[in-house]
Specification:
single chain; mainly alpha; hpI Integrase, Chain A; 3 domains; three-stranded antiparallel β-sheet; 13 helices; 3 strands; elongated
Length: about 300
Amino acid sequence: MTSLREGIAEYLELRRSLGFRLKKDELYLGDFADFMERRHATHITAKLAVQWARLPASTDANYLAGRLRAVRSFARYRILSDPQTEIPATDLLARRRITFQPHIFSEEEIRRILVGSLRQWGGATRFYCLGRYTIYGLISVTGMRVGEVLNLDLGDVDLDQGVITIRNAKFGKSRLVPVHETTLIALQRYREERDAFLAGRIVKPFFISTHGRRVGHTALDRAFRRLTKRLGMRGASASIGPRLHDLRHTMAVEVLRRCYSTGADPERRLPALSTYLGHTHLTYTYWYLHQNPGLMTEAVARLQHRWGAPV
């Protein structure tokens, strides 16, 4: 039987070969291995797993549950080589279910965001503003994940063919995203400004900061929060209000809404939308139906029309 630490390495290698990244799990399990070694424990028990999960002085139940989940997942693998392993029950340190309601932007709100992003608030440079404008616009029309946009390299944006290549996205998947001609014009404009800003320097990322480095997720999120606060879309607390990722939700909802309004069959369009968004299963795309009252109303109306009776 391999040591606990060796088992963790094998487990992570196996899961990553299936497309999982497991960055947090690697940190959690490494810390758990340290914990077990300090106690000279060689077999995972539910008691030890819970003790370790509760070590941080945190009142966030979901954070503690996430730590235990990482050990539980590994324990399911470990028991194959160590029958004395105990798998912590799922009701130990259970997660609190959080009801999430995305903000669906109106066309006017998106217009205000794009116009506002070009304003040079607080002495922001023209290039900085153009970068934010292009990123926000690209997410709103393609539904790309924020991380996917920021991870784009120069060679991933084919302005001649009008196709963006997303590499190693969620679950290690890659896909092609064709874009509209108007989006290409905006991307071309940014590319020209980017190249002029770099003045001959070769930089790999497509979207860069004013320091010539890849735009960071945290910095972009903060900029979006500041902008939406200035536009009156969030209250005094910057933590309450629309998120940048909600632009992706809005795009998906708008595509489905147009299907209903034009009489197209949403069920036939869902697989294409699911692929375009990079979903691994149609269930994730159906989620947009359940989370939007307007779409649910359209779906019920469609059923009423199909069956000729109230639903």
